Amino acid sequence: MAVEGTEKRVTRRRQRTRANLLDAAFTVFAAKGFGRVSIEEVCEAAGYSRGAFYSNFATLDELFFALYRDRAELIADQVAGALALDGPDLDVSAAVDRVTDVLLLDRDWLLVKTDFLVHAARDTAVAQTLLEHRARLRRAVADRLSRARTPLPSVLGGADGAAHAVVAAYDGVTTQLLLDRDVEGARAWLGQLLTALLTDGGTPVRTN
Q: pLDDT tens, 7-53?
């Protein structure tokens, strides 16, 4: 029992260390850019030694992937949760309001995400990781739309096409947000854009 208790304490301590390293790395990456950050800077910001770093991550790339994965999964969960609150008849306007309210529109995150995108553009293995996370977000949206009785504009070609359009709209709005820093404006514009995408644009088609 004593050994089991010690192992649990070690596990919890390691989890805290990992979380603190990720939080510190997020701040440093957002401020300086991924390519300009060293392991030493992350350790200094977190208040840990290099040994603590290497007990959790083999490389700075591995930490970067973990950071991106955590944030990307948070976004997918937020979107799925916001879309799941309606019954079979999806209220597009209400669902869009919920999505834009909870969606992560944090400028520091967008800076880190953009760094990851640039990194992925030059490395096929990294690109595959990014594609997988983007696909998960699209699946969360498409799954909800496909189960709804609410018709979609035919120009989108069904739930999968609508999900691609939603993610593309998010990409465009967040790019503008990086430049003008207007978070509330970004939420309002994203809401208008998503509502227009999902309700207008031609003869509606049923998703099921």
A: 455 588 889 999 999 999 999 999 999 889 999 999 999 999 999 99
**DSSP state, residue 86:** S
CA distances from 8 to 12, 15, 18, 21, 118 (A): 6, 10, 15, 20, 39
Nearest alpha carbon to residue 133 among 75, 58, 64: 75
**What is the number of residues in the chain?**
208
Which tokens sit at 3?
């050994």
State the distance between the two ends of the chain, measured CA to CA, in whole angstroms: 54
For the chain, list the domains and their CATH numbers: 1-57 (1.10.10.60), 59-205 (1.10.357.10)
Write out pLDDT tens, residues 170-197. Answer: 899 999 999 999 999 999 999 999 998 8
Q: How far is CA 73 from the centre of its chain?
A: 6
Residue among 168, 172, 165 at smallest CA distance from 189: 172
- Label the pairing between strands 152-153 and 204-205: antiparallel
Inter-helix orientation angle 183-199/92-102, to 10°: 150
Longest dimension (CA), the chain: 67
